[in-house]
Write a structure and sequence with these properties.
mainly alpha; two-stranded antiparallel ribbon; two-stranded parallel ribbon; 18 helices; 6 strands; binds arginine; EC 4.3.2.1
Amino acid sequence: MSNKMWGGRFVAGPDAVMEAINASIDFDRRFWAQDIAGSRAHAAMLVRQGILSEQDGKEIARGLDTIASEIEAGGFTFSKSLEDIHMNVEARLSELIGPAAGRLHTARSRNDQVATDFRLYVRDAVDRLDAAIAALQTALANKALEHHDVVMPGFTHLQAAQPVTFGHHLLAYVEMTARDRGRLQDARRRLNESPLGAAALAGTSFPIDREQTAAALGFDRPMANSLDAVSDRDFVLETLSALSILAVHMSRFAEEIVIWSSAQFGFVRLSDAWTTGSSIMPQKRNPDAAELVRAKTGRIFGATIGLMTVMKGLPLAYSKDMQEDKEPFFDALDAAELVVAAMTGMVSDMQPNRERMAAAAGAGYSTATDLADWLVRALNMPFREAHHVTGRIVAVASENSRDLDALTLEEFQAVDQRITAEVFEVLGVDNSVRSRTSYGGTAPANVKARAKTWIERLRS
Ligand code: ARG
């Protein structure tokens, strides 16, 4: 049987493989609600403009309501032969209300319809994600406040560098995810324009009012160029790019959780709810959720690169290639939502091991910089000389397999006789972090204040 929507020009139906490659209903049904909202707005505008009779408008609205409840109740039969969500809805509308259904598509094309649906869908997704990331930030800031003075090693090159606090480390991710939210909000601002009324590509000869449909759907304005409206997917790419950067942040944190929860580090303990056991090794508590957060990043990057590649060679305006914009986005979105939720759960339950962290913080001569700074301050040594003197002291300690604060005053003075007993005050890790009071530094007082600022900000 030839197609109901365009059968006039055709005598035969599509090959089965043609139908399989062409159909998008299995995935674009996800935005049925947006499709129906778009149709409602379009029909109401057609009535107000005198393009559609009041009577037809009422029947269309009633029919669309019925379809929405059928889909919600799970009683709607989606058909592959009807290709996509737009034609599935329209076909059902015509079953329900008869010939008036055929008037809904006046001054509209599936090209502006799908672009509208997708923008609405991405907008909702961005709003959901924003709230989810805010919940993660709240979990991080609460943990940071609770552990603002827990000392741990700060790393460079994954070598212990200088002591920092656990709270400070957690707050670093609050700052990063704040920028992730900012990027998503920027993308939302740019995508919130209406393609509806661009029709197939050139606009329409009907006296439509695009301002009306834009306002009804919560868009800021109609898009100014009909070719652009139906043919760009930069709003998906931009959102995917923002998700990719978010995924980088989540993956780095997940990697740290994997390292921290290992027996060798023992910095944190994940709760039972966020670990798995082994079927053979009874002692195991594996950080599977963190590992999967790290791995899901691959999907999100893949979706971004995949859609970039789909789009890059397409002449204006619409090409069917663009139907391939949805699955990667849905997949990346699902992954991102899981990743953020899993991170929130892990962080909320995570317990730091204060002793292990403090011991590791003091190892590896991590207060050597504090010693050099003391030489500058107390003895007015130029920093370069202080660096050299400290290096020699570290060498003495290292040869004797001792920490800096285990050296005797005589041993310090053997390197530089001006050194006094006051030096011992700067060699402990607690003193070290407490002294880092510069703006943005790791001093517990700073961390406490910043955590409180965030908690307050996230509450409003
Ligand atoms: N299912 C199509 C898509 O996702 C809808 C637009 C179809 N337009 C067309 N000219 N064939 O892109």
